[in-house]
Please model this.
Amino acid sequence: MRGTLAALIAEDSPIDRVPGSASRIVLAASFIHPDASQPLQGLLELRDHDDQIADGFDPRRLILEVQGGRLSKPATRVGAGLYGFEVTAAADSGGQRLTLSLSFDDRLLTRRALPIGTDRWIAEGSPTPHGGCSFVAPASRGTAWIAAPALLLVGMLRRRRFTPWS
Model:
């Protein structure tokens, strides 16, 4: 709530602060699709070193670089210390990473990397198919060797109990 009030106050009475180390790159998802027709939206939250809204500077001093993709909509001011943008990843880039770097006056403020994949589970790891429609982590092989003899013994005892004696 404090941040919202600070942004409203900054719109009414502009402030002059340059972005610093407390600036952030905020993204709409934790991964990006390898499809140029599905852009990922993001925000640049510009803060000075004391985490106060940074605004009132020439926006040409702010540079957002993309590696492993492209900036499909450049950073555009949407409010005090807030810039919106969109990025895309190429169709053949699944399994790779997209990296965003935010600089001010050629000084790196922050960097953010995210995986490229068709969905979150594929982008963030290697799913193992198990049981039809579900995905689970691979089971430890050690427990199967312990359980197998026990199940065999139980099966043999049951069979012997229900077999009629001659």
In short: The chain is about 25% helix and 35% strand.
